[in-house]
Write a structure and sequence with these properties.
Helix Hairpins; minor pseudopilin epsh fold; binds manganese (II) ion
Amino acid sequence: MPHELPALPYPKEALEPHIDALTMEIHHGRHHKAYVDNLNKAIAGNPALEAKSLEQIIRDLSVVPDAVRGAVRNNGGGHWNHSFFWKIMAPNAGGAPSGPIAAAIESAFGNYEEFKAKFEAAGLGRFGSGWAWLVWNAGKLEIVSTANQDNPLMGKAIAGCEGTPLLGVDVWEHAYYLKYQNKRADYLKAFWNVVNWAEVNRHFEAARR
Ligand code: MN
């Protein structure tokens, strides 16, 4: 199987109390695993697709055969998004950003509080399931959101936005329902306590290269 479920980079209880252990266990071990398994199923028997990296696959869905394009979009996106998400969070993290991203956020959004409010609004405003993202697009920072498992790397025609993801938050109910029930706003506020700004800075530096 070309694609594998990556291990969580920390124990499932490491993000408590902000993200609970049971949510992490089910989210990673069942939801993310299903995206990986279903992506492998969708590309099975297509050597050209099987030879591609996950990022190559989601960056060019137009070459995916019609019969499996929907499955590859949903499950390839799901695999990429969750692999990114686990690493954008960390224990003993959160708080105000530091490094180059801190200055860039101030210059683009005024200050960290303004940025947080806009990012939370993007997550809250996504009706149903999806993601909110901070992306680097055409030389500037933007806050966008995508539906379902779409990703800005898929491009405007598919995802409705574009850019390189630097930070992202999963706003599917499965990401927060056990602890926060219907209170997505509370989950989004708690998310700031676990943001791994070192990882955001790594993405930011790579995107500007
Ligand atoms: Mn999810």
